[in-house]
Description:
mainly alpha
Amino acid sequence: MGYYAEIADIENEFGKDNILTWSNLDNEVTTRDDDRCNLALANADSMIDAFFRTSEYPVPLPKNDTTKRWAAIKAGVWLHGSRGAQESDDKPYRYSARKKEVDAEMLRYRSGAATFAEPGARVYPSSPAIN
């Protein structure tokens, strides 16, 4: 379980069968590897927090549908890529494209073009007071 998302969230984004396959390095195993899924979620949390660490948002960010989707997509793409899977020719780059969409959305939030609805989610730097 990650901070922003859970294994079920990755499955909701990519499908249970895909996550079962991508989480297993051994093709003979027929159950989901929860340890690898949790590692993927931890990696996603780290990537999100590192991206926002130098922004006006304190990390960790608020837990909401947006950050949950970001983490689930980043974790799913990590699982897919870390298994050495290739994106199929019939739908080229569909997983990389989803990650790029998330990265672009995160950039909009970091730049201030989009904001979280939660109060106190953003910290504005204080200015020196002139007496």
